[in-house]
Amino acid sequence: MPMHPFTRRGFLRSGAALAGAAAVSPLSMRPAAAAGDLTVGFIYVGPKDDFGYNQAHAEGAAAIKAIEGITVVEEENVAETTDVQKTMESMINFDGASLLFPTSFGYFDPHILEVAPKYPDVRFEHSGGLWSADKHPSNVGSYFGYIGMGQYLNGVAAGHATKTKKIGFVAAKPIPQVLLNINSFLLGARSVDPSITCQVIFTGEWSMAVREAEATNALADGGADVITCHVDGPKVVMETAASRGAFLCGYHADQSPLAPDMYLTGAEWNWAQVYTDMINKTLAGEPIDNFVRGGLADGFIKMSPLGPAVSDASRAQFEATKAEIMKGGFAVIKGPLKDNAGNVIAAEGQAFAETDVTLESMDYLVEGVIGSTS
Amino acid sequence: MSDLGIWAVPLAILGGAIRVSTPFLFVSLGEVLTERSGRINLGLEGTLVFGAMSGYAIAFLTGSPWAGVLAAAAAGAFFGLIHGLICSLPRVNDIAIGIAMMILGMGLAFYFGKPFVQPVAPDLPAISFGWWSDLPQVRAALQVNVLFLIGGVAAFALWWMFRATRVGLIIRVVGDSTDAARAMGLRPALIRTLATAAGGAFAGVGGAYLSLYYPGSWNEGLSSGQGLMAVALVIFARWNPIACFGAALLFGGAGALGPALQSVGVSEGYYLYYAAPYVLTLGVLIATSSPRQAMTGAPGELSITK
């Protein structure tokens, strides 16, 4: 329950409300940017050095600061409520931002969709949102990486490392990206040994330290000996799992410094490259595609270097699978496959390649995952 | 590792009670001390967060977790002292000051804590009480942190202090009637300020437990309202330190219910299980309420009872 009532931006916001009362159009207050200069706003749902989701984006933001003519404004700890709408409007009206990266999943609907039509010359780039041309404004774009492939590779390393044949996943909320990660992690492990199961525990929040630690302990108590997660800041999960003697697979960023001996590998974002491309396009006056996706081969994601606990057999299969994924068109979800309630997901011969958009509305956990989406 | 089946749930609740209860315990003991002297300090959430940050920072800089605990206690005492001093001024409302102090404490903690999100500070030691068992689950559940034991002892010590010592009597007199205390030659403002400072020190130590043991790292989302819940626990525990200990254990255990049930396969409706501690509070408050006599055990000078 983070509360941040007194921030600089909060103060400006109340100032903006007063100015609005004085019947000043918000558009007229926008500072005129010098030609060629671009102010870019980044909004994070948590602290930007959280060893996780926000840090990955902030590293991307740091990379574009070096580009000439670019000013970056950032705000951390912005809740997925009307707060983010106010932050976006204040970045546009007071800082003169014309390109915004509101990075958290929950910012998209309804917040970006509410603000974007009011500012047609501002570009809104959202990470993970399911943009579609017939429903959403054209100044909104969506970008994401096929990080499920990274979790599949995590699963390969986990499948070789587990002795109990039980691996664990601490998940925040049952949204499609999280479900795809859980399913990919298990299927990666099952490519090593089909008897492996994966226990998932949902915490219900993107960041809730004590509950993440409790969830990790519950996984270890249940016998899971390789643990990964999809929460905003994996630090607590990684430290708790290592203290219980479980191996770790990282997520979002490189967490190997937290427990070098137990860390197998990790699925990391590589936003620096994605953001640099987008900025260069904008500076050159070219449009950014509204729907940008990419995987390992496109440099959107990368894997942490394999840790010392990874065996030679594991390393060989990891590298072979990675090479396979690098070719493109790899399918994690392929038939015959059922979900964990027994419904058929993919018939024999049916496969959903990484680029398949239907994967982004995933609402099931595959057979072998112990858990429920509600 | 052996599969415990459904027995994993009570074991997880026990483990959770031991792991999660300590911050609740320290904050509620601090609040009992403060409220027994006739003042409410709602700012303990801020003190908890600042204690967590300062404890982590000092532990990281000195390499000693115990130095961190001391620093957290000192920081907490300082916040309590400020609260106490401001509330000693005439016509100042302690609830409003408490809310201001809560926001100030969190803001300062976030500001000064920025450079300490990444570093890894040493953890407080724990004692294994599970050596007799072969089950790793039992051994993990019975890893008891030293601060938990200190908190338990402090609960009994405070209870004894209020019941049988001169200091305890003075605090109770000041809390029950300012006029009577004045007639006895006591200085209520001074005593309340000292009690608030001591209460703040308790809350600071609670914060140090969060950042130095469980979950054991500093970040801005570390406290999810534990400090506020602990203030409510005091009413729940009827201003009795030993009851605070019990209430803290109950809360810790209830918080472990959600993950534990999911790990044994009861996975539907986890949002509901996560609400268990709050449902529990409501239930117990309703069950123990009385139509004739509200607030048994409440100090007479408390502004909520006036």
UniProtKB/TrEMBL annotation, chain A:
CC terms in the record's Gene Ontology section: plasma membrane
Organism: Meridianimarinicoccus aquatilis
Residues in coiled coil: none
Keyword Signal: yes
UniProtKB keywords: Signal
Signal peptide: 1-34
Presence of the UniProt keyword Signal in the record: yes
Lineage: superkingdom: Bacteria
Domain ABC transporter substrate-binding protein PnrA-like: from-to ranges: 39-325
Protein name from the UniProt record: BMP family ABC transporter substrate-binding protein
PROSITE patterns on file: TAT
